[in-house]
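Quick sanity check, Biopterin transport-related protein BT1:
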Amino acid sequence: MAFRFLLSPPTLPLGSPTATATATVASYLIPAGHGRRPRRPLEHGCRCGRPPETALRGSSRGRDSYDDEEAAPRPLVIDGSRESSSDRQTGSAATRHQVTLKEGDTSNADHEGYQNRQCSADGFSKSRSKSGYFKAFGVDLSPDNVAVAIVYFVQGVLGLSRLAVSFYLKDDLHLGPAETAVISGFSALPWLVKPLYGFISDSIPLFGYRRRSYLFLSGLLGALSWSLMATIVDDKYSAALSIILGSLAVAVSDVVVDSMVVERARGESQSTSGSLQSLCWGSSAFGGVVSAYFSGSFVDTYGVRFVFGVTALLPLMTSTVAVLVNEDRLTLEERSFSLSVSSSELIERSKQRIMQIWNSVKQPSIFLPTLFIFLWQATPQSDSAMFFFTTNKLGFSPEFLGRVTLVTSVASLLGIGLYNSFLKEVPLRKIFLVTTVLGSALGMTQVLLVTGLNRKLGISDEWFSIGDSLIITVLGQASFMPVLVLAAKLCPPGVEATLFATLMSISNAGSVAGGLVGAGLTQFLGVTRDNFENLALLIAICNLTSLLPLPLLGLLPDESPTDSAQTKND
């Protein structure tokens, strides 16, 4: 691909990957990748597969403390009837998280009531439902659902700052490609420990709330980080800190809204759950696509500080909608009891969870595929060097780069469609082999742009970049979907959510490692903001090294995702 912009804010990625391997695009999560494959944080569920389900009603008071296992991206089962894995829509583009409802979670009467309330997900309905709310995508627009949708929209629209950050580091702070690559890698760190945030919010209620308070504070933290970028930040260290704080704010809000969604999904029909997913995913995608173009034109017209200032207002929407969350405030006695239990059991629960994860990960059937995923993600990247080349050498304007971002956002959707339509029944080994080889070969087309051969072929730099980015992003998104499928199917019963989040963290760690290795190569080859003599060599090395994990394909199960799921179910 031609390039992937730096610091694509952390996706809605890997915003959270789902067990059924769906992906989101253009979110404030770091996967808005324009490379051989999406490389940014995936998260608990990575958000490369967005929205989770939310419920249409329900209070959180009196509920059990949110548990990772309840948040596991698992198939929805109503009244204890297990859905055959072969019947699942693995990889549905609208699916982000799928939740299992255990036996007894809903009564027959409730289930019948939900079935009678099912509605089509064909868009916005002007008629009111029996609950008295308007509908969108077949979902009641209750305060809870509106709050969840707005949080996802904010995560998508925060991509507005993506290009501004890249140009700020390059033009205002005068950093080189290697330094910007390092900052980009460190910005992903908050996404490596997402399960910790959920554990903290469950154990330590603030101001009487486990959800509202953390959602409110995450919005304030995000607004603070971008306000600092818009005003007083003037060196690389403070810039890196502010960017990491912004990334942390999104990661925390993502965990909180996921927990809300899981709690309120109990008792809902599968049709309603799917409609809710469409509403949330559509909100995130809409925010991302809208911000894609303006991310460049605003930088061109008003400058990066203005963009940071506008971006600082967006997280306040998250804080504002926190009041819509249907959560009863804990009494003083309940808060005291919760804190006393937390302090006495926190260490013990942590030890138990760590042992659960370790006992699962050390199994060869899980460890070996996880090792492959890490190595596959850890190959070096040349993204930052290409960004400097396209802006400093080719003179691409922020507005044009915003157009390319828009194209690649749409291309990500096409990649999801490609996987869902043609690849989800293909064995994992074959998908990884074909997409990796094709991705490496197509990635070498960057050399044509660097050497100017595209102009000799009669193709302008602009059109070559757009076409190259479009093709590579489609392939990259399609090739990344099997990672989510593989991670989901590796998780044994009982530790699904925790282990899935751990596997996504390992994958994200591989991406960070790849970025840092790429930064080292960039520095070693002498590629700077003005010297691109060895850029073609850097591109060749990065693309060829992506082939190195292929001899380890034998570590992967040799079956299709559907076959794997059926085997696990049997």
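Posting the structure with no commentary besides this: Residues 270-302 form the longest helix (33 residues).
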